[in-house]
Amino acid sequence: MKLTKKSVIGVLIMLVAIIAIVGSTIGREFIAGEPVGLVSFALIHFAGYLFFLLMPVEILVPLYLAEGHPGLVLIGLSVGTGLLAQTIDYAIGWVVSERVVDTLISREKFEKFKATFQKWGGWAIFTFNLLPLSSPNMLLVSGIMRYNRLKALLISASGLAVKYVVLVFVFPGGFG
């Protein structure tokens, strides 16, 4: 793959966006010595689940638990903001689907992969959401493959819920 000016600019924009989001929320609160708020949690978490901003947002849970935020609230915000961002990821995949097929892969390879994804995609979506893998990219692929939207989002919600319940349970102070 050839490194182009366009791809370098894209990466730079992504990095600036990450720095701006983190710096204007949690970074500002840390510098000011203020407790971290749930708005910063929601913003960073939402941004972390957009496919083009790869951030390990799971690390936020122990940090915010240590600040005294209730585990159930963090689970709700995590699943809610994650699903909202993944809905956008799915929609982008749906919109660019034909372009991806026409420019990156052949129609034959697409149809073969699509059949496999229809069979195993649910497990892939669940696993990628359960583990700290790139689940936003999996929802992007789900959109490209025209996988059932409601099914994809329900499976995604299940994986996210299990992941965040475990995180809250494992770290002290999570449920009380």
Mean pLDDT: 83
- Say what oligomer this is: single chain
Percent of residues in helical segments? over 70%
Helix count equals 7
Report the β-strand fraction as a percent range.
under 5%
Main sheet record: none
Rg for CA atoms: 18 Å
**What is the succession of H and E elements?**
HHHHHHH
Structural class: mainly alpha
First-residue to last-residue Cα separation:
51 Å
Q: List the uncertain runs.
A: none
According to DSSP, the number of beta strands is 0
**Domain count:** 1
Name the shape in a single word.
flat
Molecular structure report:
The protein has 176 residues and is mostly helical. The chain has one domain (5-170). The chain has seven helices and no strands. It has helices at residues 5-31, 38-48, 60-66, 71-103, 107-130, 135-144, 149-170. Helix 5 (107-130) packs parallel to helix 7 and helix 6 runs antiparallel to helix 7 (149-170). The longest helix has 33 residues, at 71-103. The chain is flat and about 55 Å long. The termini are far apart. The mean pLDDT is 83.
Describe the structure in brief:
The chain has 7 helices and no strands. The chain has helices spanning 5-31, 38-48, 60-66, 71-103, 107-130, 135-144, 149-170.
